[in-house]
User: Which sequence fits this backbone?
């Protein structure tokens, strides 16, 4: 079976030789290609080749069309990114500096015609051509309730959300939701089939249950209503969200859940059961200082907790650049070993 | 009366309702409480209550942390204008986000809580070079250097806390300052603060304020 077929089998609960094994290698691509981050992320071809080379070297199932978190705000006017060689890029200039900027914020009609799409489109075209028939292609979609943090900074967004004028807040969210819907459609059309829907405000670690039900959930419904939930993976930026799995399932109909390493995986699996795909995620920050043996033991624990009854995927977090090659290999070998189903 | 005011104020903070908190304060002033009473017997205990709540309650959330700090800081600022005598500060903190990192939310929550707790805070902003943390700590006679890092590379990289520690060691300043770190990477690995050479950390920004106050007292007692 191809990795894409193995993923489909895991989602549907059909027999497969093993669980799907995802590994989120992003910034390491610049090393792989022997260029600076800034050069790497300036070229869709480079990002695609980096993804293909890393997948070929490590053997995991997925490739990514994500450049870096923050790339999406380039569609909305951001033109300053801070690149650092040791880690992920940062948004260095916020598009929204005052509430007046919210009224001026424009969502492009056709985001695939925007210059910011050019390299993403190139990357996806290459990935689709090279591995689209056999491997899952991941895209990163920022939820409407989270996108403002990239547009104005997290603290200013919290201030507007919790104490600011409701009409201005809603105008911003409406624009962000439209952009989110356009992104989902564009990535799907270009060949991405696993859409990581990043929605930290969909976790009760960010807002209380009352605000989740009255604020986060309705906006998530708007984000997903037009395009549906095919291929959507619920992800809260590594924050735990077991408390909301039931309402997300019933109200949004999402079928895959990327469980935080800080959450109780057994509890999540018990809630999701055979109704969806549980993704067990390793703590790859702790893994920086683990030995390969410790890494292997943790992968074993995750796989044994999750794979019973199927409907399970092994995945990683943000895979920091500080992780050793030896540890990444140990993790993936263990995931293939302990993820065997036959 | 005090119990009823504390209860009403705590409820407003827990519900992240800033207007309701100010309404309670206005009622307390009208009922004859002094601004000093409000800060020391209502606001600071409410911050401490939230610290305890966050530790015990898995449902405590970021919105509560943020509003606890915002409300505490705003009420304290208003009350300080009305104090009979300027209050004595506990000590000094210099705080910033590590080099290569532009996140500021955690730092803002810590600062809000510490202002209410009578700590003199010098905010160095974001993307702060290690040398500047040390230079500003010396300049302001701080007891504690606070380093926020939301990204793995800024938390563990050579330009962040590790370098601040190295500079302190090279300049013979390790007895004079404590380093406290905070941010998401430290939550995923509770031993990480030791790896990067910090003296303390907290899992959330509200409790970070408590760790900092304890460290200020520790340094002042030397």
Assistant:
């Amino acid at each position: 079976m191809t990795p894409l077929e193995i993923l489909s089998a895991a989602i549907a609960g059909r027999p497969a030789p093993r669980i799907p094994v995802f590994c989120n290698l992003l910034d390491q691509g610049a090393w792989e290609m022997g260029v600076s981050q800034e050069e790497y992320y300036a070229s869709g071809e480079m990002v695609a080749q980096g993804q293909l080379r890393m997948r070929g070297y490590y053997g995991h199932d997925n490739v990514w069309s994500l450049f870096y978190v923050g790339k999406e705000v380039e569609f909305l006017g951001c033109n300053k990114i801070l690149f650092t060689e040791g880690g992920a890029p940062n948004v260095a200039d916020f598009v929204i500096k005052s509430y007046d900027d919210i009224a001026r914020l424009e969502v492009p009609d056709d985001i695939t015609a925007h210059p910011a799409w050019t390299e993403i489109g190139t990357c996806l075209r290459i990935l689709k051509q090279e591995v689209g028939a056999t491997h899952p292609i991941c895209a990163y979609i920022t939820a409407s309730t989270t996108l403002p943090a990239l547009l104005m900074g997290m603290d200013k967004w919290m201030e507007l959300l919790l104490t600011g004028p409701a009409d201005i807040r809603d105008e911003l969210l409406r624009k962000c939701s439209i952009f989110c819907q356009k992104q989902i459609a564009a990535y799907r059309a270009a060949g991405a089939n696993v859409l990581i829907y990043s929605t930290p405000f969909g976790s009760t670690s960010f807002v209380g249950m009352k605000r989740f039900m009255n604020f986060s959930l309705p906006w998530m419904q708007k984000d997903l209503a037009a395009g549906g939930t095919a291929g959507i993976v619920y992800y809260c930026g590594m924050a735990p969200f077991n408390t909301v799995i039931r309402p997300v399932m019933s109200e949004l109909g999402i079928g895959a859940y990327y469980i935080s390493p800080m959450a109780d995986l057994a509890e999540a699996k018990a809630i999701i059961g055979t109704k969806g795909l549980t993704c067990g995620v390793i703590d790859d920050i702790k893994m920086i200082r683990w030995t390969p043996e410790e890494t292997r033991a943790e992968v074993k624990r995750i796989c044994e907790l999750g794979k019973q009854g199927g409907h399970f995927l092994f995945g990683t977090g943000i895979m920091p650049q500080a992780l050793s090659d030896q540890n990444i290999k140990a993790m993936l070998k263990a995931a293939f070993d302990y993820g065997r189903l036959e | 009366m005090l119990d009823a005011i504390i209860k009403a104020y705590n409820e407003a903070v827990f519900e992240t309702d800033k207007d309701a908190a100010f309404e309670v304060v206005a009622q307390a002033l009208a009922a004859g409480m002094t601004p000093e009473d409000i800060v020391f017997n209502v606001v600071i205990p409410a911050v401490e209550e939230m610290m305890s709540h966050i530790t015990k309650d898995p449902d405590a959330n970021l919105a509560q942390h943020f509003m606890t700090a915002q409300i505490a800081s705003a009420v304290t600022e208003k009350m300080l204008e009305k104090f009979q005598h300027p209050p004595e500060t506990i000590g000094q903190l210099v705080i910033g986000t590590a080099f290569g990192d532009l996140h500021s939310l955690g730092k803002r929550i810590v600062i809000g809580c510490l202002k209410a707790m009578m700590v003199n805070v010098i905010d160095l902003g974001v993307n702060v070079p290690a040398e500047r943390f040390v230079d500003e700590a010396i300049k302001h006679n701080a007891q504690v250097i606070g380093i926020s890092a939301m990204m793995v590379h800024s938390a563990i990289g050579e330009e962040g806390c590790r370098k601040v520690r190295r500079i302190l060691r090279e300049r013979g300043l390790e007895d004079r300052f404590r380093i406290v770190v905070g941010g998401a990477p430290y939550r995923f690995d509770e031993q990480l603060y030791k790896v990067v050479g910090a003296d303390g950390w907290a899992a959330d920004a509200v409790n970070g304020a408590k760790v900092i106050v304890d460290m200020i007292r520790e340094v002042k007692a030397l």
The mean pLDDT of chain A is 96. The first strand of chain A starts at residue 63 and ends at 64. The first helix of chain A runs from residue 3 to 12.
